[in-house]
Write a structure and sequence with these properties.
The chain contains eight helices and five strands. By secondary structure, the protein is of the alpha/beta class. The model has no long low-confidence stretch (mean pLDDT 91).
């Protein structure tokens, strides 16, 4: 395997990884969901809980948590971001509509007004990411049908998104641009600079904006959480909503895992 074979991703698979791919191809299980393949889905849940503990993630990310945690295997981190952004959009819209829904059951006119209010909310939705965040967040907004805004970062902060800059941006988008921020990608190891956003500061800001879904994109450097000396980086994640990591980059698993 030559490290020059691929531009960004070296061919760093291993024999156990190849064996796993072999068995997967042999079983060819239709693992869409639990109904189609219960055994595969149960195994997926167990393996991802194991990885959750291995990466020292907060207990809220486990499938056994009271907060509805648990993980799924996606084809890429970009797929994961699209998935959680759609979930964030629908959670936010549902919450906003429920607050507006004082007129339910009062007739057809009230229902029409409620539908119009929902679409007004949808038209103002905006997803956020720092200017160092991967382009997958911006691309996901095109699929989700929402706006995107980038938050500037500086070399003085090691190109990390800090709490003050996030708070200022959220207030500006909400109060000046009349938008409704519903989603934020924070990063553990940005593609360009391997920056790590200030999770603890960001978690404090999130308390002021409870409707904001915060997703941790750890596609590049999340594997470092296996090492005890980097596990402090998960501090603050307990207040976030989702997390992704690519096994094929540092963990010797063949691509598509």
């Amino acid at each position: 395997q030559s490290p020059d074979f691929l531009a960004f991703f070296p061919a760093n698979t291993t024999y156990p990884s190849l064996l796993g791919e072999f068995y997967s191809a042999a079983f060819t299980a239709p693992a869409f969901n639990w109904l189609c393949s219960p055994a595969t889905t149960e195994l997926e849940t167990i393996v991802l809980d194991y990885l959750c503990r291995l990466f020292h993630l907060p207990a809220s990310y486990l499938s056994t948590s009271d907060t509805g945690g648990g993980g799924v295997i996606q084809g890429s981190a970009s797929e994961a971001i699209v998935t959680v952004m759609i979930a964030a959009r629908e959670r936010y819209v549902k919450s906003r509509v429920e607050k507006l829904n004082g007129n339910r059951g009062l007739g057809e006119k009230a229902e029409e007004e409620l539908n119009e209010a929902e679409w007004r909310v949808r038209s103002r939705l905006v997803a956020l990411g720092s200017e160092m965040a991967h382009s997958s967040t911006q691309k996901a907004t095109m699929i989700a049908g929402v706006k995107y805004r980038s938050i500037p970062v500086s070399a003085a902060d090691d190109f990390a998104l800090i709490g003050k800059d996030l708070r200022d941006a959220l207030l500006r988008f909400r109060d000046e641009e009349k938008l409704e921020p519903f989603y934020l990608t924070v990063t553990l190891g940005t593609t360009a600079t391997c920056a790590v956003d200030q999770f603890r500061e960001i978690s404090e800001v999130k308390k002021e904006f409870p409707g904001l879904w915060v997703h941790v994109d750890a596609a590049y450097a999340g594997a470092a959480l296996l090492l005890e000396e980097y596990q402090h980086l998960t501090e603050g994640m307990e207040g976030f909503d989702s997390f992704d990591v690519n096994m094929h980059k540092w963990l010797l698993v063949n691509f598509d895992a």
